[in-house]
Write a structure and sequence with these properties.
Blueprint: H1 2-34, E1 63-69, E2 72-84, E3 95-106, E4 109-113, E5 124-126, E6 133-140, E7 145-154, E8 157-167, E9 188-193
Antiparallel strand pairs: 1-2, 1-9, 2-3, 3-4, 3-5, 5-6, 6-7, 7-8, 8-9
Length: 194
Amino acid sequence: MKSAVFQLLLGALLIVAQSSSVYAQNPSAKQKIKAHKVVPDDGDNPPPPPPPTPLAPGQLFAGEWEWSGGGEVFHLTLNRNPTYVFPGYPNDPPRNVVIGHFVYTRNGVVIDHSLTTGPRPFAVFGSPANNRTMEMTFYSHGTKGYGYLTLSIQAGSPDVLAWSLRPRETAYRNPADRPAVPFLMPTTMTLIRQ
């Protein structure tokens, strides 16, 4: 009788052990059934485009810009340099800057332009904080006048740039170097991306 009870008890333990192992396997079997597989697309439904990569500060300003009116043309080229090191300070860390060159013509004759060599090889210089508005310094090679320049990308129109230039009071070593007029080009313009 002891052997019959022992066999019955052993059989019950085997049944419980087997049912618990089957029970433990059921969730993983359900997970395999629930797994989503990529269904090949027949081409009618292309995948959504990836989200746009945010532009680095100043990137939207880079490019060719132009204003024209009454025979006058002002052409501005802006370049972004994310690793600019000031020539006089080679040990300073690099900075993200926007550098600009311009040519201003009246009836096809060059009235003023920026230089590409020398101690000031550009006319427009600034460190952008965003892609909407940028405060910059301006130097007119034609008049030797200094100014503060504000460039603003128009809201909802990344191809329209507002230019606002105002003179900066500067002390000159030689009073004869003080320009009669600070700038030859218009100080307020709306430029269009070319």
